Description:
9-stranded mixed beta sheet; 12 helices
Amino acid sequence: xxRAAIVATGLTKFNKTEKPLDSIMLSAIxxxxxxxxxxxxxxxxxxxxxxxxxxxxxxxxxSELSGIKPKISHSVExxxxxxTNSLVSAYAYVASGxxxxxxxxxxxxxxxxxxxxxxxxxxxxxxxxxFWASMFASAHMRKYGTSLEDLAYVSVKNHKxxxxxxxxxxxxxxxxxxxxxxxxxxENVRLLDCSMPCDGSAAVxxxxxxxxxxxxxxxxxxxxxxxKTISASxxxxxxxxxxxxxxxxxxxxxxxxxxxxxxxxxVELHDAFSVCEIIELEDMGFCQKGQGSKFVRDLYxxxxxxxxxxxxxxxxxxPLGATGLAQVVEICQQLxxxxxxxxxxxxxxxxxxxxxxxxxxxxxLVLET
Length: 369
């Protein structure tokens, strides 16, 4: 298999606009062609689109609007995990030799379908994602003594980090008191414990090693990939204080990259809800089980931006089809030393974790300079 690298990225502001989905996507694609030397539309072999919108032939439409005539074009949908799923597909095309250059673009509108999985009738009336978040929180509280204040610190930290992210949905800080007294949605999920759906797009250009050297001085290499789907039904989770698909995906990604948690300098975790970040930190080996809350507080107290430097989904916003790719964009900026005030000093190895529907599926990527 060929090596594959990320050579360029594009990102839009996460907000709520009147722009249609294809227009938002084009806004993320434009800087890739403007800022990448020697790159022309004719050089792109693959165009993949990532979204939960019901848009027929979208990849072909985006190709035409971008002036690209690719060999391969199609859309990828996997709820919140769509972005990294599309990137892994692009990686496979390049690594296999079927393509040299692949453009991946993800986007979502606030009112796109895909926020609720109607198929899973086992959830009864509790189909909205806040209910699986509440079940995770209850399980972790029972098993490890996690408190509502522990959950609140995740939100406070990530909203603080988002202040240094010009593309973030939220542009104001929230105190511990703000989070603790925000509207209660369930007995242990408050409004500010949640990520916010919004409009937004992110794009990534992946190339073979030969093309990467042509287009970029310092490409970011994809060295580890792990993916796991355990079900579509949330009730198939065995231990709600842990995330089975995430543990499997990260183990495979570490193995492929010959890395472990100690080697990772900067991390983008899928904090759809506050409790998710605590559990994921534990399941991916960044701390012991039951120590996720303490780990988050230590990050906040010391101002360490290693985990979710752009503000995570909670601070930056969560346009489903764009989220995983936006996480990748952040890690590429970090590894390239281009993250500004968010920069984690000396970052050489980064990790992206993207998941769907209560961790029924997960993707983990290891990226390196």
